[in-house]
Amino acid sequence: MPVAILHRCRSLKAGIILSALIVAGALAPAPAIASKLAPQTRIRLSVVQWMPTRGTYERWDALGGEFVVSDEGTLSLPVLGNVPVGDLDEAQLAARIAEQLKTRIGLVEKPDASIAVIDYPPVYVVGDVASPGEYRFRPGLTVLQTLATAGGEFRLEGLTGARGVEYAGELRELNDSILRGSIRVARLEAEMAGAKGFDFDLKPHRDNPLAATILQQEQQIFTARAAVVERQSRSFTELRELMGQEIGTLEKKIDSNDEDIESVRKELATVKPMVERGVILPTRQIDLERSLRGYQSTRLDMVTAIMRARQNISEATRNLEGLTDNRQVDVTAQLQAEKGALKQLQLRRDTRSNVLNGALGADADGDNAASTSLTSYSISRRADGKVDVIEANETTTVQPGDVVRVVRTRLPVAGTLPDEAAGVPAAENPTEQASQ
User: How many angstroms separate the CA atoms of 124 and 137, rounded?
Assistant: First the structure.
């Protein structure tokens, strides 16, 4: 009996110990997940080597310093060149650099390399927030913390007053800038295609008094730029034709000069035997030889002039071809820049329009409890050369370079009817109301 009791006590003790170990393992904090180094991350690299003969560490300043991860995900380092970062964190990248330094320099032991992040790429907050823009990133940042950094959700108080007028004016200015940019893009595309003219459909913008003026200005710019190119092209073409005519004239003069040379040679062949027999004086032979040399020198000058004219023709042809190529390069660069700026303007316009529409819509409904709002979050993240849109919530962790979009949707409360169902006519577009 005592043996059985002792056995049961031992079993109970073992069970308690096992349970304690399981609970301790469950309560132990999970190891921190190291994040990879995103493009545009600024780091500081330190490399040291243990010197056994001196008993000290030697710092290699020539290999260390501050570096920035490129958009291609590489680090440009002394001695090693471009080192791919990939999905490595600071410790893994430091180990790779130490191993490559050992191999490249031929060391017996690996040096000690360490990496510290100095600055991360910013995060961007857009949508229904009080202060959209870019903000500094810190590890562990969540969507809710990012929203707090941007001033929280957009508040509607006072928007229909002076601030509402300010937003409406900014929205009108953005629309004018987008219209101007769209017409400019159409003009640049026409220039790239080599068209004789271009036009733009102004029907969607017939209420904008600046539309016709902007189109007229861009058409004048198109005509002026085309005239400049045409004038330069005509100048190079006329220069080639002029050089061609000059070559033709010189070739005729060379033919005439060759006839003179042949005539002098025949006469010199007749005079030379007579001089040898003493029939005529040697001065006659000397004069003929001098004339022959003069004709030959003149011929060389004309040949040189022909070569120079042909060189000018080649240069004019090269300039004429380069004129078209340079114009295409210039127009392409302007078109890319204009399209990028147009997208930025459209994004700002959409953000301001959504904010203003939501504000004026809420003001039209009053401050009663007939509606509520639902806030949703999404993250635009660049990975492998493309942008992925990820659904998020308040606890989602943000990574460097992310664009956090906050969208607040107004939802009717159960038991209420829309304006149309209640017999109330639909309100005008809130943006148009603000503009008015």
Answer: 9
Asked if 117 contacts 127 with a C-beta cutoff of 8 angstroms, the reply is no
The CA distances from residue 59 to 62, 110, 114, in Å, are 9, 14, 12
- Cβ–Cβ contacts within 10 Å for residue 364, how many? 13
Q: Could you tell me the pTM of the whole model?
A: 0.41
Taking the CA atoms of residue 189, residue 192, residue 196 and residue 201 in that order, the dihedral angle to the nearest 10 degrees is 0
pLDDT tens digits in sequence order for the chain, 436 residues long: 444 443 444 544 444 444 444 433 433 333 334 567 778 888 888 888 888 877 788 888 877 888 888 878 888 888 888 888 888 888 888 888 888 888 887 777 888 888 888 888 899 999 888 889 889 888 889 999 988 988 888 765 545 556 667 777 888 888 888 889 999 999 999 888 888 888 888 777 777 778 888 888 888 898 898 888 889 888 989 988 999 999 999 999 999 999 988 988 988 888 888 888 888 888 888 888 898 899 899 999 999 999 999 998 998 888 888 888 888 888 889 989 998 999 998 888 888 777 776 665 555 444 444 446 788 999 998 877 788 898 999 899 998 889 999 988 766 544 444 444 333 334 344 444 444 4
Of the candidates 418, 322, 304, the one whose C-alpha atom is nearest the C-alpha of residue 361 is: 418
The CATH code of the domain at 41-119 is 3.30.1950.10
- Contact partners, residue 90, CB within 8 Å, separation at least 6: 34, 37, 43, 115, 116, 117
Q: Are 173 and 163 in contact (CB under 8 A)?
A: no
3-class DSSP state of 65: strand
Strand-by-strand arrangement of the 123-127 sheet:
133-135, 123-127, 403-412, 371-383, 386-392
Whether 47 and 59 have beta carbons less than 8 Å apart is answered as: yes
Q: Are 131 and 151 in contact (CB under 8 A)?
A: yes
* Domain residue limits, the chain: 41-119, 122-154+369-412, 161-368
